[in-house]
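Lecture 7 notes: from sequence to structure.

We start with a single chain of 129 residues. Read the sequence below before looking at the structure.
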Amino acid sequence: MRKGDELPPLEISITRTLIVAGAIASRDYQDVHHDPELARQKGSPDIFMNILTTNGLVGRYITDHFGPRTVLRKVAIRLGAPNYPGDTMVLTGTIEALEDTTATVRIVGTNGIGNHVTGTVTFSMRGAE
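Now the structure, written as C-alpha coordinates:
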Protein backbone atom coordinates (compact mmCIF):
# COMPACT_ATOMS: atom_id res chain seq x y z
CA MET A 1 0.00 0.00 0.00
CA ARG A 2 1.43 3.37 -1.09
CA LYS A 3 0.25 6.95 -1.19
CA GLY A 4 -1.57 7.55 -4.47
CA ASP A 5 -2.69 3.92 -4.89
CA GLU A 6 -6.24 3.61 -6.17
CA LEU A 7 -8.72 1.11 -4.78
CA PRO A 8 -10.81 -0.88 -7.25
CA PRO A 9 -14.28 0.59 -7.74
CA LEU A 10 -17.30 -0.89 -5.98
CA GLU A 11 -20.66 -0.73 -7.77
CA ILE A 12 -23.73 -0.71 -5.53
CA SER A 13 -27.23 -1.03 -6.99
CA ILE A 14 -29.52 1.49 -5.31
CA THR A 15 -32.74 -0.42 -4.73
CA ARG A 16 -35.85 0.56 -2.79
CA THR A 17 -35.08 -2.28 -0.41
CA LEU A 18 -31.57 -0.95 0.28
CA ILE A 19 -32.88 2.57 0.90
CA VAL A 20 -35.73 1.50 3.20
CA ALA A 21 -33.72 -1.19 5.02
CA GLY A 22 -30.87 1.26 5.63
CA ALA A 23 -33.25 3.85 7.03
CA ILE A 24 -34.93 1.31 9.31
CA ALA A 25 -31.61 -0.17 10.48
CA SER A 26 -30.37 3.31 11.42
CA ARG A 27 -33.72 4.19 13.04
CA ASP A 28 -34.30 7.03 10.57
CA TYR A 29 -38.07 7.00 10.08
CA GLN A 30 -38.33 10.19 8.02
CA ASP A 31 -40.93 9.61 5.34
CA VAL A 32 -38.61 10.72 2.50
CA HIS A 33 -36.69 7.47 3.01
CA HIS A 34 -39.65 5.09 2.69
CA ASP A 35 -42.81 6.78 1.32
CA PRO A 36 -42.58 7.79 -2.37
CA GLU A 37 -45.77 9.87 -2.33
CA LEU A 38 -44.78 11.89 0.73
CA ALA A 39 -41.26 12.31 -0.71
CA ARG A 40 -42.84 13.77 -3.89
CA GLN A 41 -45.05 16.07 -1.82
CA LYS A 42 -41.85 17.40 -0.23
CA GLY A 43 -40.26 18.09 -3.63
CA SER A 44 -38.23 14.94 -4.24
CA PRO A 45 -38.93 12.77 -7.31
CA ASP A 46 -38.76 9.62 -5.14
CA ILE A 47 -37.46 8.27 -1.83
CA PHE A 48 -33.71 8.69 -1.31
CA MET A 49 -30.91 7.14 0.74
CA ASN A 50 -30.10 8.58 4.16
CA ILE A 51 -26.60 9.65 5.23
CA LEU A 52 -26.24 6.82 7.75
CA THR A 53 -26.70 4.20 5.03
CA THR A 54 -24.15 6.00 2.88
CA ASN A 55 -21.76 6.15 5.84
CA GLY A 56 -22.13 2.39 6.32
CA LEU A 57 -21.50 1.68 2.63
CA VAL A 58 -18.36 3.83 2.69
CA GLY A 59 -17.12 1.91 5.73
CA ARG A 60 -17.92 -1.38 4.02
CA TYR A 61 -15.94 -0.29 0.95
CA ILE A 62 -12.83 0.17 3.09
CA THR A 63 -13.22 -2.96 5.25
CA ASP A 64 -14.05 -5.17 2.26
CA HIS A 65 -10.89 -4.00 0.51
CA PHE A 66 -8.43 -4.03 3.43
CA GLY A 67 -9.85 -7.01 5.31
CA PRO A 68 -10.99 -8.01 8.78
CA ARG A 69 -8.04 -6.39 10.59
CA THR A 70 -9.27 -2.95 9.47
CA VAL A 71 -10.39 -0.62 12.27
CA LEU A 72 -12.17 2.53 11.12
CA ARG A 73 -10.91 5.54 13.09
CA LYS A 74 -12.66 8.43 11.36
CA VAL A 75 -15.24 8.70 8.59
CA ALA A 76 -15.75 12.27 7.35
CA ILE A 77 -18.21 12.45 4.47
CA ARG A 78 -20.38 15.03 2.74
CA LEU A 79 -23.48 14.25 0.70
CA GLY A 80 -24.23 15.71 -2.71
CA ALA A 81 -26.56 14.27 -5.36
CA PRO A 82 -29.22 12.00 -3.80
CA ASN A 83 -29.18 8.23 -4.32
CA TYR A 84 -32.57 7.34 -5.83
CA PRO A 85 -33.93 3.84 -6.51
CA GLY A 86 -32.88 2.37 -9.84
CA ASP A 87 -29.50 4.11 -9.94
CA THR A 88 -26.03 2.70 -9.26
CA MET A 89 -23.46 4.26 -6.98
CA VAL A 90 -19.81 3.64 -7.80
CA LEU A 91 -17.39 4.10 -4.90
CA THR A 92 -13.75 4.84 -5.66
CA GLY A 93 -10.86 5.59 -3.35
CA THR A 94 -7.30 6.86 -3.41
CA ILE A 95 -4.78 6.47 -0.59
CA GLU A 96 -4.10 10.01 0.55
CA ALA A 97 -1.85 9.48 3.58
CA LEU A 98 0.10 6.70 5.32
CA GLU A 99 1.71 6.76 8.73
CA ASP A 100 2.85 3.54 10.39
CA THR A 101 -0.27 1.31 10.51
CA THR A 102 -2.73 4.16 9.81
CA ALA A 103 -3.98 5.27 6.40
CA THR A 104 -6.39 7.85 5.04
CA VAL A 105 -8.35 7.18 1.85
CA ARG A 106 -10.12 9.88 -0.17
CA ILE A 107 -13.55 8.51 -1.16
CA VAL A 108 -15.88 9.54 -3.98
CA GLY A 109 -19.22 7.89 -4.67
CA THR A 110 -20.90 8.83 -7.94
CA ASN A 111 -24.34 8.06 -9.33
CA GLY A 112 -26.18 8.99 -12.52
CA ILE A 113 -26.65 12.62 -11.48
CA GLY A 114 -23.28 13.41 -9.90
CA ASN A 115 -21.23 12.93 -6.77
CA HIS A 116 -23.37 11.38 -4.06
CA VAL A 117 -20.65 11.29 -1.40
CA THR A 118 -17.17 12.72 -1.00
CA GLY A 119 -14.84 12.56 1.97
CA THR A 120 -12.12 10.66 3.75
CA VAL A 121 -11.80 7.52 5.84
CA THR A 122 -8.94 7.08 8.28
CA PHE A 123 -8.27 3.54 9.49
CA SER A 124 -5.63 1.38 11.07
CA MET A 125 -4.75 -2.27 10.75
CA ARG A 126 -5.03 -4.35 13.95
CA GLY A 127 -2.08 -6.58 14.57
CA ALA A 128 0.10 -4.58 12.20
CA GLU A 129 1.67 -2.54 14.99
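Residues 10 and 96 are 18 Å apart (CA to CA). Keep this in mind for problem set 3.
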